[in-house]
Amino acid sequence: MSATTSPAARHLPAWPYPKWIAHRGAGRLAPENTLAAFRLGASHGYRMFECDAKLSADGVCFLLHDATLERTSNGRGTAGEQAWAELSQLDAGSWHSRTYAGEPLATLEAAARFCLANAFHLNIEIKPTPGTEHATGVAVARAANAHWSGAQSLPLLTSFQPDALAGAQESAPDLPRGLLLDTLWSGWCDMASKLGCVAIVCNHALWDTATVAQARSAGFRTLAYTVNDEWAAQRLLDLGVDGVITDRVDLFSPHR
Q: Which of 11, 44, 65, 255 is catalytic?
């Protein structure tokens, strides 16, 4: 019996999300974690986006992957040590291409407004500045809970950091959570259960028939990142995973 027809699958949590998810907005086709990337991903037909959220020094939730600013902006230093008034003035587009010169960093609030206005879904990865895991989880979840108040589809909060997910669980227990895994470290399944997660989000190479069955039997939905090759995507689709996160919004049609 395949994982997709296992009796355990009947007990999986409800899943309102599309199968195809645009990584950081539009993968590598636009400056990551910006509204420009979200708009480009949407132009390719994507209805769900993944982004990274962290805290400014004065408590504003904004989108950025790295702890430091140099790779994806004209700023310098640790982003979380700077106030939003400074961060909001940075150019987060020129590093990618001239087309996006002057594109600003995005707040989580702006991303929420874009998604809600267009009936899009969002996977928010809580990406704390090191040492602020719990506080960032609390703040991001609290902000998301406020932005999506009354919405039909809530954002999925994920993190590699259990402390961040614990903070999210404490501050907004009704928001769905997922544990991100780059390796199958000892106790991952128990930790995901303790954190009240609805999903496991794995490096795509970790999923096989056995691991998908293990996750599903424990009541978790299964998502894979970052899937950029046709052979890898087809393997995951054959395994019956619930979500595929990709940079290749130009290669994979979300309607396939």
A: 65
d(CA 172, CA 195): 12
| Cα–Cα distance, 183 to 54 (Å, whole number) | 23
Which spans in the chain are helix H?
A: 35-43, 84-87, 108-118, 133-147, 162-171, 188-194, 209-217, 230-239
- Quote the CA–CA distance of 114 and 121 in Å, as a whole number: 10
Is 205 exposed, middle or buried (CB count within 10 Å of its CB: 0-12, 13-18, 19+)? exposed
The domains found in the chain, sorted by start residue, are 3-69+106-246 (3.20.20.190)
User: What is the model's pTM?
Assistant: 0.95
Q: Which of 23, 96, 121, 147 is catalytic?
A: 23
Nearest C-alpha neighbor of 99 from the set 192, 36, 56: 36
Tell me whether residue 110 is exposed, middle or buried, using C-beta atoms within 10 angstroms of its C-beta: 0 to 12, 13 to 18, 19 or more. Answer: middle
Distance of CA 202 to the CA centre of its chain: 12
Based on the residue annotation, tell me whether 23 is a catalytic residue of this protein. Answer: yes
* pLDDT tens per residue across span 50-67: 999 999 999 999 999 999
Residue 167 gets the label, from left (phi > 0), alpha (psi -120 to 50) or beta, of alpha
The mean pLDDT value for 175-200 works out to 98
Q: What are phi and psi of 177, to 5 degrees?
A: -130, 155
Asked about 204 being catalytic, the answer comes back as no
* Length of the chain (residues): 256
